[in-house]
Design goal:
Strand content: 35-45%
Largest sheet: 5 strands, mixed, barrel
Shape: globular
Bound molecules: zinc ion
Distance between the termini: 18 Å
Number of strands: 10
Radius of gyration: 16 Å
Number of helices: 1
Helix content: under 10%
Length: about 150
């Protein structure tokens, strides 16, 4: 799903795959973001967010909106998916590195079946994963190559 499709959808019924992972604005012209955490003492940033800094062990962190664009840090093609996975195989996973050095684990979307070259510029999208017991759409983040 691309962002325009996402904007046309009813975000009120969207829920993140994990509580607190994403900020999904109810105003259509605002963009969704990944929510990380930032240490209030040393400034280290994490995704997923953590209540304790793993660098200086301070227990005061705050929510931090992550950048939506980064570069491919690692990528690998998965040919044998876990049994509960219902999407297409093969698919690609890896890490995206943001400007502040944060590594975001992710699935890559809108790519072929070869690993993405390291350093490829990619941007955040949200994709539908399924529905919860209340019929709401569960969404999960992915990154796709930036269209120039
Ligand atoms: Zn810290």
């Amino acid at each position: 799903m691309d962002e325009q499709q996402a904007l046309n959808d009813t975000r009120l019924e969207w829920v993140p795959v994990q509580d607190g992972f994403y900020k999904i604005p109810k105003v259509p012209d605002q963009k969704f973001v990944l929510i990380g955490s930032r240490c209030t003492k040393c400034g280290e940033v994490y995704f997923p967010g953590t209540p304790q800094c793993l660098k200086c062990y301070t227990e005061t962190t705050e929510d931090y909106d992550l950048q939506r664009v980064g570069k491919v840090y690692s990528s690998t093609v998965v040919h044998l998916a876990p049994s509960m996975y219902q999407g297409q195989v093969p698919y690609m996973i890896g890490h995206v590195q943001l400007d502040n050095g944060v590594l975001v684990p992710t699935r890559f979307t809108e790519v072929g079946n070869s690993p993405l070259p390291l350093g490829t510029e990619v941007e955040l999208v949200l994709e539908k994963l399924g529905q919860d017991e209340k019929g709401r759409t569960i969404v999960v983040h992915a990154f796709r190559p930036v269209r120039k």
